[in-house]
UniProtKB/TrEMBL annotation:
<feature type="transmembrane region" description="Helical">
    <location>
        <begin position="136"/>
        <end position="154"/>
    </location>
</feature>
<dbReference type="GO" id="GO:0016020">
    <property type="term" value="C:membrane"/>
</dbReference>
<comment type="similarity">
    <text>Belongs to the TspO/BZRP family.</text>
</comment>
<feature type="transmembrane region" description="Helical">
    <location>
        <begin position="47"/>
        <end position="67"/>
    </location>
</feature>
<keyword id="KW-0472">Membrane</keyword>
<dbReference type="InterPro" id="IPR038330">
    <property type="entry name" value="TspO/MBR-related_sf"/>
</dbReference>
<feature type="transmembrane region" description="Helical">
    <location>
        <begin position="79"/>
        <end position="99"/>
    </location>
</feature>
<dbReference type="Pfam" id="PF03073">
    <property type="entry name" value="TspO_MBR"/>
</dbReference>
<dbReference type="InterPro" id="IPR004307">
    <property type="entry name" value="TspO_MBR"/>
</dbReference>
<keyword id="KW-1133">Transmembrane helix</keyword>
<feature type="transmembrane region" description="Helical">
    <location>
        <begin position="105"/>
        <end position="124"/>
    </location>
</feature>
<protein>
    <submittedName>
        <fullName>Tryptophan-rich sensory protein</fullName>
    </submittedName>
</protein>
<dbReference type="GO" id="GO:0033013">
    <property type="term" value="P:tetrapyrrole metabolic process"/>
</dbReference>
<keyword id="KW-0812">Transmembrane</keyword>
<feature type="transmembrane region" description="Helical">
    <location>
        <begin position="7"/>
        <end position="27"/>
    </location>
</feature>
């Protein structure tokens, strides 16, 4: 019975970030918006984004699951930061794509990056592997900040 509960908890942990990203993308209407923008150098083709984001959301879910299974008393604070950065993640694409608020979206993303750093630090204190799984997310968001600012500058 415990294995079944663990599997259920893992599935929920994976579905939460994937659902957050998917719903945000639907609201944002990303595909049509991306094609019409002037983009900075090194901008990847549009097909790269859903692939990378799906992988990152899965890694987020795995990390959150690892932290949630911990007996560490700090797990609630760590998961609170995780939820807050996920909230920021949800609204970034809406600000950027749906409303074309490029500069506010850049500052929103900068705040999200700070939250990701805090999350990684808190995860590391509890379960280092959960933190390491978020390093790619951090790097991708730093790259996204470059792209975001580039779009702001060029458009």
């Amino acid at each position: 019975m415990k294995n079944r509960q663990n599997l259920y908890d893992m599935i929920i942990s994976l579905l939460i970030p994937v659902a957050v990203g998917s719903i945000s993308a639907l609201i944002s209407r990303i595909p049509g918006r991306y094609a019409g923008m002037q983009q900075p150098p090194f901008s990847p083709p549009a097909i790269v984004f859903p692939i990378v984001w799906t992988a990152l959301y899965i890694l987020m879910g795995i990390s959150a699951y690892m932290i949630s299974r911990s007996e560490d008393a700090r797990k609630s604070r760590a998961l609170s930061v995780y939820a807050l950065q996920l909230f920021f993640n949800f609204f970034w694409s809406i600000l950027f794509f749906r409303f074309s608020w490029y500069l506010p979206a850049f500052f929103w993303l900068a705040a999200m990056i700070i939250l990701i750093l805090i999350m990684i630090f808190r995860f590391f204190q509890i379960k280092p592997l959960a933190a390491y799984l978020q390093i790619l997310y951090l790097f991708w968001c730093l790259f996204a900040a470059y792209l975001n600012f580039g779009v702001y500058w060029l458009n």
